[in-house]
TrEMBL record, chains A, B:
Entry GO MF terms: pyrroloquinoline-quinone synthase activity
Pfam families: TENA_THI-4 (PF03070)
InterPro entries attached to this UniProt entry: Haem_Oase-like_multi-hlx, PqqC, PqqC-like, Thiaminase-2/PQQC
Protein family according to the UniProt entry: Belongs to the PqqC family.
EC number: 1.3.3.11
Domain of life: Bacteria
Biochemical pathway: Cofactor biosynthesis; pyrroloquinoline quinone biosynthesis
Function: Ring cyclization and eight-electron oxidation of 3a-(2-amino-2-carboxyethyl)-4,5-dioxo-4,5,6,7,8,9-hexahydroquinoline-7,9-dicarboxylic-acid to PQQ.
Protein name: Pyrroloquinoline-quinone synthase
Domain Thiaminase-2/PQQC positions: 11-221
One GO-annotated biological process of the protein: pyrroloquinoline quinone biosynthetic process
Species the sequence originates in: Neoroseomonas marina
HAMAP family assigned to the protein according to its UniProt record, in alphabetical order: PQQ_syn_PqqC (MF_00654)
Amino acid sequence: MSILSPDALEDALRAIGAERYHIHHPFHHLLHGGQLTKGQVQAWALNRYYYQASIPAKDASLVARLPTPELRREWRRRLVDHDGDGVHPGGIERWLALTDGLGLDRDYVVSLQGLLPATRFAVDAYVRFVREKSLLEAIASSLTEMFSPNIISQRVSGMLRNYDFVTEQTLAYFTPRLTQAPQDVAFALAYVKDHADTAERQEQVLAALRFKCDLLWAQLDALHFAYVAPGLPPPGAFRP
Amino acid sequence: MSILSPDALEDALRAIGAERYHIHHPFHHLLHGGQLTKGQVQAWALNRYYYQASIPAKDASLVARLPTPELRREWRRRLVDHDGDGVHPGGIERWLALTDGLGLDRDYVVSLQGLLPATRFAVDAYVRFVREKSLLEAIASSLTEMFSPNIISQRVSGMLRNYDFVTEQTLAYFTPRLTQAPQDVAFALAYVKDHADTAERQEQVLAALRFKCDLLWAQLDALHFAYVAPGLPPPGAFRP
């Protein structure tokens, strides 16, 4: 591969999203299309909790490797967004409001007892990726947020329309994400376009985004297999 | 060793400080006693900059391993204290005001070109310790802050009294530390007393604090050797 201009690199990143982002997964279509039972939506929220709860671990290990106060402050904002500030709830707390709203026991959710093992493997792979790969690859792996406003608006509008057990309050997790994600993306995308200055580094960046799309996709595969078709939750996993 | 009560453990921690904290190092006595040249004080500030600049790396890798939003928020405060919030300067910026005030070129300080290799080894050992040891040991290694208000007040009052090249503004780094450190200690000490619940864990906690005292001490040893007696800075190191 020869070196791309920064804008061509951005196009290549967006092309990965167009092909691989989990907005195209059948489970997502069932979810926002109103074709899941309450139990299946519970399974989704319960498993996705582990992803939400692990985000600050990956972000803090990224902060630990950023070289300047300016860069660390930029990325520290994500810690505040997810963990809150002690007054305003963060993303994890808001996700628990979602699992509450779906009628799941909070202690059970937090205990991770009912988690699909495949969810754990995928999420842990993400935390390890960010800890162990280059800073550039770690930052690039966050760029699925380029695509998240679309999936969030589909989810929120579809779920509100189609499920009588879902309210705006239940889905309050998503509202701040519509402004937080673009702010995060603006920084991360500029960093990646600026620092991926060889063909090799550009290929690493594209691979990092593919990896991240794959692990989001794999989480929906596992949900689909366990709870939709054929519908075989593994021993010990949540049963609606 | 048999298990100690939490208060006896605190006494044992304080006894380590009484014996090993670098307030007892001859270089500290020379520094606050006004017996160093401006060049020797510059060497101290230049080397200590690397310690300051590395603190957020160790704190963020600790945040990355804390399991709950509450614990992470508590430790996140240290990131804010050291990196600032983009409006109020953090500890690193305030330390650079100190090296500015001592007449050192800021680019040279930040470049780490003049750093003593022994400073780098000691500081890097601290960052690695926090990243690799148990969470309990990582938190315990912060407890030298139990002893820091004393050394800070000795430094500030002694340096102001004894050096005409030092002003209150130059030493502004230290003022917020007098309130930040006790707040940090209150949490860390309570955590350690609560979680060091076996004789083995208590021994780990005591060893972690000894390790931390040793690495602060080693930094002053290196300064003393290079710049006081015999006064042999290694090749490439800062020369006043």
